[in-house]
Amino acid sequence: MNPKDQRADALHNRAAILAAAHDLLLHHETVSMNAIAKKAGVGPGTLYRHFATREELILELYCHDVQHHADTVDHLLEEMEPLAALRVWIEQLAIYTRMKHGLGEALTKAAEKSVVQRTYPIVIQALSSLLKAASDAEQIQPNILPDDVLLLVSALWRVPQDQAGLKQAERLLDIILCGLR
């Protein structure tokens, strides 16, 4: 069933499950479905009605989080100059993606393809908005393709997850933004 077609209480339960899963999986990738249900304040049956498998829950959580990140674009553009907003958005995307690499076992090859098909357009639209704003403000070259920028920034979540890797990601982002100017 499409979440938008659910009753208000079912939507509330679904949101509570996603929030609980987000909190728990952030720190422990092996947390049980029962622990997620308990933290969400729902019974296991309710959790399994919404998400039949752990993998389904993790994939939906990933898609939900990507949408939430994409939704930050307007706020960032209201708060700062377009190029600064672009930098912050890319940094946050890289942090999130590095963090989610720990869920690799749950994201099987078939599921990854499905998730990419669901989230890629969302990310490209958000990135397009940021690039247009920066271009309109003459902070970057015009007509830069978001697909190209996304491919470039994918290097940011491939760095080691230690302090040296984070410093390297910062340097790489400086190089990418310099190239966009």
From TrEMBL:
Domain HTH tetR-type: 11-69
Gene Ontology terms, MF aspect: DNA-binding transcription factor activity; transcription cis-regulatory region binding
Domain of life: Bacteria
UniProt DNA-binding residue ranges: 32-51
Pfam families documented for this protein: TetR_C_43 (PF21597), TetR_N (PF00440)
Keyword Transmembrane helix: no
Keywords: DNA-binding, Transcription, Transcription regulation
Name under which the protein is recorded: TetR family transcriptional regulator
